[in-house]
UniProtKB/TrEMBL annotation:
Taxon lineage: Eukaryota, Haptista, Haptophyta, Prymnesiophyceae, Isochrysidales
Annotated protein name in UniProt: ABM domain-containing protein
Biased segments, Gly residues type: 129-145
ABM domain span: 52-152
Disordered: annotated segments: 119-159
Membrane-spanning segments: none
Amino acid sequence: MVLATMQNTKGKPKVALWDGLLPVSVVPPAPTPGGWREVEADGKAMLDGEVYVAMNRFSVLPGMESGFEQRFASRESTLASRDGFQGFLLLRRDGAPDDGFTHSTLSVWRDKAAFEAWRGSEDRAGKPKPGGGGGAGGADGEGGPPKGPPQMFAKPPEPSFYEGILVLESARGI
């Protein structure tokens, strides 16, 4: 689990609950005692980053949720084979969203360099292929869903990026 604010907020933070739909994970390294690493926190210096997190929030129109989720579930992914990839989740908002965002994606990487290497690669999902095809790229760790019918989204996806500073992992993944 990455302990960081996982919702873009303006002003006072709000609680947002999500259902994890499509977890993809690689086996994490052996945990440290108690699951946490030894941290030297003096209250002055910022903690070192442990992972890089890329997220994308989607505003899917009512009635289009199933189609949106199916597009993620049915496409091929090369994430698990990428150096530095640690996990991916497609999330569905639990309850009625007050900001219009119904779904989110979260991908966890060893560091920003590993994410950027994947993002610039030729084999990522959603990247246009030579001769046509492909789709809309994004910052969600899987390139965003393939370009689809414009009536599926109420507004463009919103990417956000985080440095995970305290990580707790289990043998089951993120």
